[in-house]
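testing teh design pipeline on a random one, pls ignore if ur not involved
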């Protein structure tokens, strides 16, 4: 005959949460993250290849225009790019906790 503790343990066993395996969970999460990363890399690689192909096709038509634009607007665009980079880095520094 079972003791009262054993009977209670068997009754409560159905209500217990399932056992967890932290190693298995970590492996599954790593596999999901790896799959998402590879999908992002493939999407960015495809987008980059398309952009390069478009530039190669359009370069003969854009070359004369680009030389004029670079001469006239180049210094201003460089200043804007530097200002945007500084703003993004400053925002990231102030938003991260502990820095």
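output:
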């Amino acid at each position: 005959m079972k003791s009262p503790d054993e009977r209670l343990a068997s009754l409560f066993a159905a209500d217990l949460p399932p056992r967890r395996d932290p190693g298995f969970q970590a492996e599954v999460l790593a596999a999901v993250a790896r799959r998402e990363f590879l999908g992002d890399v493939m999407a960015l690689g495809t987008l980059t290849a398309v952009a390069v192909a478009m530039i190669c096709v359009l370069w003969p038509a854009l070359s004369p225009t680009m030389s004029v634009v670079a001469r006239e607007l180049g210094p201003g665009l460089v200043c804007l790019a530097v200002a945007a980079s500084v703003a993004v880095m400053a925002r990231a520094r102030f938003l991260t906790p502990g820095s």
